[in-house]
Specification:
Length: 414
């Protein structure tokens, strides 16, 4: 019994490492690209749900064709149906960092000419683009002369003042005011309060196209971004080691499923789908109630009476695994912080002396693997790494591990 948790953890770690590679697959969707001769070629494009703008695409003419890598310099434009569109353009871009330790000392943008695949956000009489490369995020717009220009928003160090100061160049507000003339004439828009954010800039371009009675397209570039509230419940098998340094070490494994009433956990889970990488990643917040009771006698006739109740706050990350674009399994990892209440750990020796210890579970980590047999149902198994169930004292050490198996039922999805 003592080796079972280690064996289980070894299997879980093996699956955790190998499954993402075994089940990894590209998500090819209907799309097109236009080559340098102006020919539009229809086919299937691997949708990587790019965070940073792509420098190449994976393309195949049909499901059975070989995958071909097409580099940026061979693409004038490409699009994925019901997703988005990218165009290649040679633009002047300022890559100044906003990191304080790397701020430019120039009070004007430092532009360099680059050929980039720009993400089309809104396309119409007024068109706006975005470009992301790591921590650099820039917006561009097409002016009335069909030039694509950067909307300038940058920080720099002002060396002209007696005290070194960080200044902000928000020229993009003036650029928008001049370019979006239709809505600029309306008092409801305060261009000098606009933030350099996708949501606000897209809204302005959409509104100006509407104001100008212009036909436009808005691309959302999102896959499976969602909010889910789920009910979680299951049974936990616990393994507890008690060590009293004043006597020979006493080590025993106790299973609540075998010797005691099953240790039931119940709670709710809030899942925040990132929309990144085709919805493969989610953030998790999962409060769960746990109760554990144990009354046992050691080989030296010490009596242990444990009554443990806690709310466990799980903060985690989930990675979905897909087959044919359907999530059929997932891997998850958690950081857990426990809040104990009305809990006790009592020890009675041969002479009837009573020691009482307070509850104080230590933070710990948990790994898990789950399957989705149905759209709104998941079944998972998790392993809690060793941690203290109660505060360690000069004479007592306790190590607590748990294997959890449960079910999650999605109650709400947006």
């Amino acid at each position: 019994m003592k080796s079972f948790p280690i064996q289980f953890l070894s299997i879980l770690l093996f699956l955790f490492i190998t499954l993402p590679h075994v089940m990894a697959q590209s998500k090819f969707e209907e799309g097109y690209y236009i080559n340098n001769t102006g020919n539009r070629i229809e086919g299937l494009i691997s949708n990587e749900d790019w965070r940073s703008n792509p420098i190449e695409i994976e393309f195949k003419s049909n499901e059975d064709a070989e995958v071909v890598t097409i580099l940026k310099n061979s693409i004038q434009e490409f699009g994925i149906h019901n997703y988005g569109k990218f165009i290649r353009a040679t633009v002047l871009i300022d890559r100044s960092s906003d990191n304080y330790n790397q701020l430019s000392t120039s009070d004007t943008p430092v532009f360099n000419s680059e050929s980039l695949l720009l993400r089309v956000l809104v396309e119409g009489y007024n068109t706006v683009y975005s470009y992301t490369d790591g921590n650099i995020s820039r917006f561009f717009y097409k002016n009335s002369e069909n030039q694509i220009l950067q909307l300038v928003n940058r920080k720099y160090l002002d060396q002209k003042s007696s005290v070194l100061k960080v200044r902000e160049d928000k020229t993009f507000r003036i650029q928008l005011l001049n370019e979006l003339s239709c809505i600029a004439s309306q008092n409801e828009y305060d261009f000098f309060e606009i933030k350099y954010r996708k949501k606000e800039i897209v809204r302005l371009f959409v509104d100006n196209n509407k104001c100008s009675n212009s036909t436009y397209n808005k691309y959302n570039y999102t896959n499976d971004r969602r909010i889910v509230i789920a009910l979680k419940s299951g049974v936990s098998t616990t393994f507890l080691m008690l060590d009293n340094s004043t006597e020979l070490p006493i080590q025993r494994d106790y299973s609540s499923e075998i010797s005691f009433e099953p240790n039931i956990l119940i709670g709710f889970e809030l899942e925040l789908g990132s929309g990144f990488n085709n919805g493969a990643w989610s953030l998790l917040i999962n409060p769960m109630y746990q109760q554990y009771n144990l009354n046992a006698v050691s080989s030296s006739n010490y009596n242990y009476d444990i009554d443990f109740k806690a709310i466990q706050i799980h903060l985690g990350l989930r990675r979905y695994l897909f087959i044919n674009q359907n999530p059929i399994a997932y891997l998850e990892g958690y950081y857990i912080y426990g809040i104990a209440f009305n809990s006790s750990f009592d020890v009675i020796d041969l002479n009837g002396n009573l020691w009482e210890y307070r509850a104080g579970p230590s933070p710990n980590l948990k790994l898990g693997l789950g399957v989705k047999p149905f759209h709104r149902v998941g079944i998972d198994v998790n392993y809690n790494f060793r941690h203290s169930l109660y505060s360690k004292t000069a004479s007592w050490v306790n190590d607590y591990r748990a294997i959890y198996m449960g079910v999650r039922i999605e109650l709400f999805e947006d």
